[in-house]
Amino acid sequence: MKFEELDLNYDVLDALDAMNFTECTPIQEQAIPVALEGRDLLAVAQTGTGKTAAYLLPVISQLSDYEHPDDAVNCVVMAPTRELAQQIDRQMEGFSYFLPISSVAIYGGTDGKEFGRQQHGLKMGADVVIATPGRLLAHLSMGYVDLSKVSYFILDEADRMLDMGFYDDIMQIVRHLPENRQTLMFSATMPPKIQQLAKTILYEPEEIKIAVSRPTDKIDQSAYICYEPQKAEILKHLFKTAHSRRVIVFASSKLKVKELSRSLRKSNWKIGEMHSDLEQKEREEVMLAFRAGNIDILVATDIVARGIDIDDISMVVNYDVPHEPEDYVHRIGRTARAGTDGKAVTFVSKEDQWKFGIIEKFLEYEVRKDAVPESLGDVPEYRPSQRQRGKFGKKGAGNSKKSSNRHGFANKNRRFSSNRKKTGKPAKTVRNNNSNINK
Questions:
Q1: pTM above 0.70, yes or no
Q2: Phi, psi of 157 (to 5 degrees)
């Protein structure tokens, strides 16, 4: 489907044309019409599928076509990291280029001048506020932020925000929002905690699920079946025999990232590390150095697996097996971009074989197993069907109650149609069914 076939504002379509965007991605084709109708939405789609445009375009269009309060915050977009907030803000500028819609990005790790700019934007009532949870709460606590007139509340990469411990922050922000709003929630995965959040903050949402695409054939995937202590030496072997420049190594924890970075620096590799313990300024410096080629190998947690564009990555190494198949796809998708070839290698310890087996079932093929150098000794047999017991406890299923004090759906319909004036287009009519889109 082409964007011009959607009921978007003409100035938005002109901006898309200027940016050479013509064809919708699957998530955009399904999500934009639902959002334009004023319905709450729960969308599951992996990073790189065009989710940002799927929520920004209909919101920008409605901000232009309908009457909204002047000098008030009309839309809040939540993002898990500063980097993603900045990326969303850049796309916002492009999509709204021909429209008088204001936006401000709110995130931490800034100096006093930048904090003042954010403060000014919030006080003046930017149309769209793009924020990380912690920094928006900091501004809210100072008493000058009014979110009572917000019409659109959007959560991008909701699963990542919950993984980073932002559930309570999100719920605090929700308490500052009006009940009668439109909420759009986008997530790459659908774990129980996302379902719980959806039941709490969404009202009769339309559900869209875009199947996670398989990795491109241009990625040469392989794995080493090994014991945990062998991983560091296998990694050094890879750097000597495959690639040692433009490499990202993903580890499961910030502690492991620190230890591995220390070890590799002793071998005189140009190493950078990325994890949540770094100050924002330090993270920016690392990313700039990596993009400039001053750092050859970036050792990181999943903080850089989503939401950040890094080109020309020659190899991705999963030092630890990702928890979910979707995470595996996100990680290795950092390489083989823009039509180039790339290499993805995963170290599979005895304890993680069952997780890698799940990934192979998702891929619907077996990943090639390369031989561990003989000098490193024996390796375990690959038996992915046998999960190691005793390391993890059972996960309890939490119960949650849906908020009972939500306005009826008819009220939402009135707010998004008859209470707003629109030029050149008829008022929207909201469907009354609660069907799910699972195609």
A1: no
A2: 55, 55
